[in-house]
Specification:
By secondary structure, the chain is an alpha+beta fold. 38% of the residues lie in helices and 25% in strands.
Length: 195
Amino acid sequence: MNFIAIDFETANSHRSSICSMGVAVVRDGALVHTHHIYIKPAPNYYDGFNTVLHGIDDSHTRNKGTFHQQWAELKPYFHNQTVIAHNASFDFSVLRFTLDHSGLAYPDLDYHCTYRLAQQALPLDSHKLNIVSRHFNIRLEHHNAESDARASALIALKLCEQYKVSSLAELSAQLGFKIGKIVSDSKTYKPFSKK
């Protein structure tokens, strides 16, 4: 089972204002690598609310490249990959808005949402990342993009183990979801949704 978990933090209310990206890489069913990337946001300013949430401000990103400038290094985490996020509707709308704002082509990818999967699979009062992480005893520094991506990856692995499946496609199908897709040629977006 191979997939990549991602998480974005934004600098302000604009969906294109990525200031931080976390990545967790799963290969052959094991978490093998995590990574954190600072990104100069567009537009380049910070709302106090966002900074209080994730602790990032201009001092972290003023000397970093924009998403457009870093896309060559970031694209392999998306293009022709299976990608997951916790609350994927947010993260993949951020990705699309940022690609549009940057004038970049969409990557081809399939995606899954650990928030929706956990909602369907786990009888918890809430399915926020911190609650599901606590349920599975996953260490989390919430709103740190790398930690959030790592937690999402581990949640996906735990759910696959719980349902005795060998892929996210099997897990999603068993829980009644259609796989989300972003398609570069037609620049289309199909949400991760119930069948």
